[in-house]
Design brief:
The chain is of the alpha/beta class. The protein has 4 domains: 73 residues, DNA Methylphosphotriester Repair Domain (3-Layer(aba) Sandwich); 110 residues, Arc Repressor Mutant, subunit A; 67 residues, Double Stranded RNA Binding Domain, CATH 3.30.160; 81 residues, Orthogonal Bundle (Arc Repressor Mutant, subunit A), CATH 1.10.10.10. The protein contains 15 helices and 12 strands. The strands form 4 sheets. The protein has a 4-stranded mixed beta sheet with strand order 5-3-4-6. Helix 3 packs across helix 5, helix 3 packs parallel to helix 6 and helix 6 crosses helix 7. The chain starts with 11 loop residues before the first strand and ends in a 7-residue tail after the last helix.
């Protein structure tokens, strides 16, 4: 077996970029013991007993010194018969590696909450991924737009919604979702659920939701509003399906569907569909996470007739790497057109990803581009 090696000289030197690198086997082994990230990408080590090569900072169990060989590049290591470590991914750099690590952390949090109802500690996540807690926290926040702890809280809130539908009492649901203290949960429940827990348990009992179904040139439309403002604008083909979806979401609220005073609100929304360049002069009852609300607020700043990509939208909220999270926030938007997620397109210019149909998305963008409604038969 032929392996790329360096002649043994002094233990360290400075490369052309001013970076201090280890150049002897002793110095490299010391860097592996210390999991020194400053050496990542400068050289690699391979373990003969496993046939795997790694970055110096890899969090895998330390191999015996006699089983190691050192390589200048990943190409050299592969040519010598070694395969890339699945933990530190030495054959990947930058965004690809970060995506894999963040995905692994999300999966770890999801699995832990499902199994035990608790979010793993940052130290446990760090050990699982092989990164330091500080580095992992920074990487996760940069990619997702929120911390691992905040992500876990969001997942737990989702579990709670499911528990509320299945449990006999709110307290039972709270503990079933992994909250050790009911008082701690209640401090943030209104913000996370969009209503107080007792109302959420019974689908918003105590709230009054006025709604109406109308017709537009793009199909049926359902408009619903609470005392705070418009909480739902849905588009579709089947009016009954739109009503059933509203009933499921607010199954314990008082739904009022025959309020003549609500006709003016519906008329304004229908007018927005026919002429989406106009502004909707109505209050909105927006219910989402802090991150979702940041995305939705940014959406309202996009000028009619203009489009942005998901990546550009992520940049608008100061989270350029949170593209997937931004796309998920757009998909979670319950208020069509007034929060114009139809103005977001793929980098390739594709129009997929609109929950109310790609054809409707294309029609809305066309009307905005022309600056006037288009009559359709």
């Amino acid at each position: 077996m032929i392996m790329a090696m360096w002649p043994i000289q002094t233990s360290e030197c400075v490369n052309s970029a001013g970076r201090l690198i280890a150049i002897t086997d002793d110095a490299r082994y010391a860097a592996i013991v210390a999991r020194d990230r400053t050496q990542d990408g400068v050289w690699y080590y391979a373990v003969r007993t496993t046939g795997v090569f790694c970055k110096p900072s890899c969090g895998a169990r330390l191999a015996k010194r006699g089983n190691l060989s050192f390589h200048a590049t990943t190409t050299d290591a592969i040519a010598a018969g070694f395969r890339a470590c699945k933990r530190c991914r030495p054959d990947q750099t930058g965004p690809d590696l970060h995506t894999d690590v963040v995905t692994a952390v999300c999966r770890m949090i999801d699995d832990a909450l499902a199994a035990t109802g608790s979010v793993p500690s940052l130290d446990a996540m760090a050990r699982h991924t092989g990164f330091s807690p500080f580095h992992l926290h920074r990487m996760f926040r940069k990619a997702m737009g929120l911390t691992p702890r905040a992500y876990g809280a969001g997942v737990r809130a989702r579990f709670l919604r499911d528990q509320l539908d299945e449990s006999r009492t709110v307290s039972e649901a709270v503990h079933g979702a992994g909250y050790s203290s009911s008082s701690r949960f209640y401090e943030q429940a209104t913000k996370r659920l969009g209503m107080v827990p007792s109302r959420a348990k019974r689908g918003g009992v105590g709230e009054t939701v006025r709604f109406a179904v109308g017709a537009t040139s793009l199909g049926a439309i359902l408009v619903a509003a609470t005392e705070k403002g418009v909480c739902s604008i849905q588009l579709g083909e089947d009016p009954d399906a739109l009503i059933h979806d509203l009933e499921r979401r607010f199954h314990g609220a008082t739904l009022v569907g025959d309020d003549p005073a609500f006709a003016a609100t519906v008329s304004q929304v229908v007018g927005l569909v026919e002429s989406p360049r106009s502004a909707l002069d109505l209050p909105l009852d927006i219910r989402g996470t802090a991150f979702q609300e940041r995305v939705w607020t940014a959406l309202t700043s996009i000028a009619p007739g203009s489009t942005v990509t998901y990546a550009q939208l992520a940049g608008m909220i100061g989270q350029p790497t949170a593209v997937r999270a931004v796309a998920s926030a757009c998909a979670a938007n319950e208020i069509a057109i007034a929060i114009p997620c139809h103005r977001v397109i793929r980098t390739t210019g594709g129009l997929s990803g609109y929950r109310w149909g790609v054809d409707r998305k294309a029609a809305l963008l066309e009307r905005e581009r022309l600056g006037e409604p288009r009559s359709e038969k």
